[in-house]
Amino acid sequence: MKHFMKLCAVIIAFIGFTAMQDGTKADFKFEKETHDFGKIVQGKPVSVDFVFTNVGEDPLIISNVESTCGCTVPKYTTNPVLKGGTGTITVTFNAAAVQPGFTKAVTIKSNARTPVKVLYIKGEVVASSTR
Questions:
Q1: What's the predicted TM-score (pTM) here?
Q2: Residue 131: which pLDDT band, with cuts at 50, 70 and 90?
């Protein structure tokens, strides 16, 4: 019985220690995670800034930001973002073709509590009226 109690105490201590460690990791808090451009003109680039705050304890480091296609280009804060600091991920979309509706994903890889985060842009591409 004593061995069982010691084993339980070790397990509880391990769980408590692990839970405390997660609280120190960096973490994103975005003002918004989806942006709707509405109607945009074909061949005319549009951009949006996704602003975030590091609400964790550790510095937030973005290692990579990828888009689902070449028509969507992300730029992002490359310096570590300290606790309470802010950073920006700018996403530029340039549609080559008319699309009745589109949704594009931008995937962020970082050292945050959730290491992979996805942002979305959407809208409708209409033909240019200056032909």
A1: 0.79
A2: very low
Token pair belonging to 60: 């937030």
The residue among 97 and 113 whose pLDDT is bigger is 113
Contact 113, 19 (CB under 8 A): no
93-96 contacts at long range (C-beta below 8 A, 24 or more positions apart): 93/37, 93/40, 93/45, 93/46, 93/47, 93/121, 93/123, 94/43, 94/44, 94/45, 94/46, 95/40, 95/42, 95/43, 95/71, 95/125, 96/42, 96/43, 96/71
- In tens, the pLDDT along 47-84 reads 999 999 999 999 999 999 999 888 999 999 999 999 99
Q: What is the pLDDT of residue 13?
A: 59
Six token digits for residue 130: 């200056």
How, if at all, do strands 116-126 and 34-41 pair? parallel
Return the SS3 of 19: helix
